[in-house]
Amino acid sequence: MASAPTQRASAILRNPKLWIAPTALSAVLGMVLALLYMGGILDPPGSLHKLPVAIANDDQSAPLPGQKENLGAQITNSIVSQTPSEKVKWTVVGSDEAHDRLAAGKAFGVLVIPRDFTDTVAAVAAGKAAKRPQFTILTNPGMGSLGSSLATTITQDAAHRASTALGRQLTAQTTDPTLKVYLADPVGVVVRDGHAIGGHSGLGLSAFYYTLLLVLISFIAGNGISTGVDTALGYADSEIGPWHSRRPTVLINRTQTLIVKMVMTAAITLLTSSLLMVTTIGILGMDAHHRVLLWVFSYCVMLVVGLGVQAINAAFGGIGQLVSMLVFLALALPSSGAAVPLEAVPGFYRFLGAFEPMRQITDGVRSILYFDARADAGLLRAWLMLVLGFVLSMAFGFVMTRHYDRRGLVRRGHHPPPKPTA
To answer: Where is each DUF3533 domain found (predicted)?
Structure first.
């Protein structure tokens, strides 16, 4: 028997129907991803929305003659009132609370006015002291290098404006030309870490990359498990290089298949989460003090993401990988607040950040790595959202598969037995 003639590639490529679906999918996906990723990072200063920054007025000096408030209080009121409220959210606190806000990840930076500020300014203005008054800016590198940099720029600008405004008052009260030059910008600025992190923390980026690894490994492993199970059960072809095979179909419904995939996900995640810890901490030396908690959190994150991938694949079939990529990566990365703070991205990304998983995971990882695993530093919210994600993944996956099974929507290769005839 003669074999069928082999089609040539040129003949296949001339068929316009071959081009429609992949061309449309590639074009739409390319535009959507470009809009999502580039739209969130092009103008962080222009997108600022209530970036939390604190000002600690420790000035205990008496007011200058003829004034009701000391200079520290005057400068504090001036900074808060003159900064656009939609851009920066200034919080006036004491020094102890300022350090607590830094340690809880609730402030990107702090501007500190020292205890003897008014007395020092008065002495310098009178030519009785050479000590220059100073503001101190406390940074929070645990909130990410970009977020900390934005807060430093904001506090430095505020400090410079306050210094020049004070200089205009002081120069108007003296006739000494040399002193006028010195008093034109009388206050110096010192920048230092307000909440230091370890030297092996990637300048505050280790939390972002560790979170990305958690999600990416879970996404890839989840899809690998799904494909592997389908291949083993005979619902997908196995093709490695030039070798192609297909196993006999195992008669199993969608719900039972999902159970197999989810159980395998839970078991394999034990290995992948452990290897991730060994690699990042044991081999590469990433700073992590709460290692047991980090492993437990990492396992739970990878489990929930993996179960979510299985549920989405079970519900959407062949396009499930694309849907899960959109949920866990394409929409999640720009709304995570990890590389670019949510306060420095357009409103659409802040909306996504309220429920997209990567934002919650990032907050939890940051709390464990940088903020002593404090619940109010984002860890409690992360745990709550993980529980919610687990429940939603299980419910969505099994509701959809049970629905398909009840309607008799069998998978390819699985057919119900024929009904008996009279």
So the answer is: 31-387
